[in-house]
Amino acid sequence: MQNPIELYGALAGNCIRAAIALEEAGVPYTVKRIDLAACEQLGSHHRALNAFGKVPVLVEHRREGTFVLTQSNAIMFFAADRSGNGLLPADPVARARIYERFFYFLTDVIAVSHGAFRLEQMGARAQSTHLNGMAMAALAESERFLESTPFMAGDEFSLADISAFTIASAFREDLQWASHPALTRWFEAVSMRPAVINGLKAFA
Ligand SMILES: N[C@@H](CCC(=O)N[C@@H](CS)C(=O)NCC(=O)O)C(=O)O
Predict the structure, then answer these.
(1) How far is the CA of 40 from the centre of ligand 1 (A)?
(2) Does residue 3 surpass a pLDDT of 90?
């Protein structure tokens, strides 16, 4: 039988994060590619899944009906709940630390970088550069998370690392890696994880 879970998406950070989370969680899924350049996400077929016309979208075919989930971060938490592993442990303290770091990357790096991208599209180049600089500085600051632990929120790989990894990949060319030895070591280690490699390839 086909995988009950489908992940609709494209080669973009939000979709790759969702794919990496499913891979790390060991949740089998089928990739459904959406051609953003051809505006397939805005067509009626895709809008039936996500009225906002965005990817990623996760679809799970259940006996009791079809479950549709949008928002990359919601999909990551869905995957973590299925994983039964360290992506999001049950211990409230460990979990709180993961939330802290996960939302650091989401709100201080990814969202800021997204704002920069929108400004660039509007032709507001100076403002875009300023915002991108803020996002990059916040990413560089995450070096301190890695001073005493191998991963962003502790001794185990977690949702916080997935959040950090895709945006660090996007900034790979511009980050001063030599000044950030812990970030460099972390990035190399995460890049070699089989689930991360598979997630990166999901929409390639
Ligand atoms: N907050 C949403 C953002 C989704 C989003 O903006 N997706 C982009 C691709 S990364 C998209 O669908 N772009 C196509 C469009 O805006 O037409 C999430 O995290 O899933």
Answers:
(1) 13
(2) no
Which residue has the CA at smallest separation from atom 15 of ligand 1? 54
Residue-range domain boundaries for the chain: 5-85, 92-193
Quote the CA–CA distance of 138 and 133 in Å, as a whole number. Answer: 9
pLDDT range class, residue 48, cuts 50, 70, 90: very high
Please report which residue ranges of the chain form alpha helices under DSSP H.
13-25, 44-47, 72-83, 92-103, 111-121, 125-141, 159-170, 181-191, 194-201
CATH fold match for the domains 5-85 and 92-193: no
- Whole-model pTM? 0.96
Asked whether residue 1 carries a pLDDT value surpassing 70, the answer given is: no
CA 56 to ligand 1: nearest atom: 20
CA of 10 to the centre of ligand 1 (A): 10
Q: Which atom of ligand 1 lies nearest, measured to the CA of 114?
A: 6
Which residue's CA lies nearest to atom 20 of ligand 1? 71
For ligand 1, atom 18, name the residue with the nearest CA. Answer: 71
Fold of 92-193: Glutathione S-transferase Yfyf (Class Pi); Chain A, domain 2 (1.20.1050)
Is the domain covering 5-85 a CATH 3.40.50.300 domain? no
